[in-house]
Write a structure and sequence with these properties.
By secondary structure, the protein is an alpha/beta fold. 33% of the residues lie in helices and 28% in strands. Strand 9 and strand 10 (215-220) form a beta hairpin. Helix 3 packs parallel to helix 5. Bound molecules: adenosine-5'-triphosphate (ATP).
């Protein structure tokens, strides 16, 4: 269970003519308890969705308030929280660091106390589960965007987190690969919190948070959330 209590994120904005930077609020105080299996976060570009998502595993620290996962504080107990909450970025290149898929997944498994051969064997098993068995030794840079996104998810899920947070996991994918990743996410046992611009994916969620200008302006039923978002988006050109 993820719990935000007055969670607020501030940062320094751009410096003025005197070199002084004002503090800007990226996320206004937010309180909610996230227990549903499928949660979507939607909103305009720059509204604060990624900031909210990154709070959930401590990638971003609250400037005020708290974020806890099953009672563990994302600041105080950051390492334990990150073991429980896997995070997948929009761009898999931000996540894939080793030359081949098998090495990359084996790296994800480094926390398990395993001999190197056993770690490699497990990494191959994980790749097979994700339909990437025949890509195990192919250079990561030679994989398609869809294969890279699957690999990034495989690396995160290999560690068996109880919660998966994904920041626009299908934005860079063509329709075929988007379906593959959507099906994978829909079928997971884990709780999944997904930031998305895909309103069909949002409509399939159990609960949808709509973020606007750093505030959660709607939280609840997917149909009403999507309608709220569409209303916001048709209210004039972006600022
Ligand atoms: N570390 C930071 N310092 C200053 N401003 C930041 C920082 N991180 C994000 N921002 C700003 O906060 C706002 C919200 O950013 P965020 O990435 O959370 O939006 P988003 O809703 O995920 O956008 P998108 O849909 O475009 O990915 C943006 O205006 C962004 O430029």
């Amino acid at each position: 269970m993820i719990e935000l209590v007055g969670a607020t994120v501030t940062a320094y904005g751009p410096p003025d003519a005197h070199g002084r930077a004002a503090v800007v609020t990226l996320l206004h105080p937010t309180t909610c308890t996230l227990t549903e299996r499928r949660i979507a976060v939607i909103g305009a570009n720059g509204s604060g969705k990624s900031t909210l998502a990154r709070l959930l595993n401590g990638l971003v620290r609250p400037s005020a308030g708290t974020v806890t996962v099953d009672g563990l504080d994302t600041v105080r107990d950051g390492t334990q929280v990150r073991r429980q909450v896997g995070f997948c970025f929009t761009d898999p290149d931000a996540q894939l660091v080793l030359p081949t898929p098998v090495e990359d997944v084996a790296l994800s498994l480094r926390r398990l106390d395993l001999a190197p051969e056993e770690r490699t064997r497990r990494a191959r098993e994980v790749l097979a589960r994700f339909g990437l068995a025949d890509r195990a030794e192919v250079p990561v840079h030679a994989l398609s965007g869809g294969q890279k996104q699957l690999l990034a998810l495989a690396g995160v899920l290999a560690t068996e987190p109880t919660i998966l947070v994904c920041d626009e996991p299908t934005t860079l994918l063509d329709l075929r690969w988007k379906r593959v990743v959507d099906d994978l996410l829909d079928g997971l046992d884990q709780q999944v919190v997904q930031v998305t611009h895909d309103l069909e994916a949002a409509a399939r969620a159990d609960r949808v948070l709509v973020v606007d200008e750093g505030r959660v302006v709607h939280d609840g039923d997917p149909g009403a959330a999507v309608a709220r978002y569409v209303g916001l988006m048709t209210g004039g050109p972006p600022r």
